[in-house]
Amino acid sequence: MGMISSQEKAAALAAVPLFAGISDDSMAHLTEVAGEVEFPAGQFIVRQGQVGSGLYVIIHGLARVVRGSTEIASLGPGEFFGELSVIDQEPRMASVEAVRDTRLLAVASWDLLRLLESDPALAQNLIRELARRVRSAGEHHHH
Amino acid sequence: MAELDARPCPPGDYPVVVVGSGPGGLQTSYYLRRLGIRHAVLSADPAPGGMFRRFPFFQRLLSWTKPYGPVDRRSRGYEWYDWNSLLADEPENRAIMPELMDGTSSFPSRPEMELNLATYARRTGLEVRFGCRWESTRREGDHFVLGTSDGEYRARACVFAVGVAEPWKPDTPGFENVPHYVETRAPETYAGKRLFIVGKQNSGFELASGLLPWAQRIVLVSPRQVKLSVNTHSLLGIRARYIQPVEDEVLGGGVFMLNGPIGRVERSADGVRVFCVRSEGGGELVVDADEAIAATGFTAPLRDLPALGVSVFGQSRLPSLTNYWESTNVPGIYFTGTIGQASGGMKKYGLPSNSGAVHGSRYNARIAVQHLARKHFGFAPEQPAVEPSSLVDYLLNEATAAPELWNQKSYLARAVSLDPTQGMRDEGIVPLADFVDMEGSPAVAITVETDDTGDIHPAVYVREAGRPAVETLLGSQALHDFRTVDNRARLASVLKGLTAGTAR
Amino acid sequence: MPLSQPELVNTLASLSLFADLSRPQVEQVAHRMSEESYPEGQRILRQGFTGSGFYVILEGEVAIRIDGEERARLGRGDFFGEMSILLGEPPVADVVTLRQLHVLHLGGPELEGFLREHPSVMFRMLRTIALRLRNASRWRS
Question: Do C105 and B312 touch (CB under 8 A)?
Answer without folding.
Answer: no
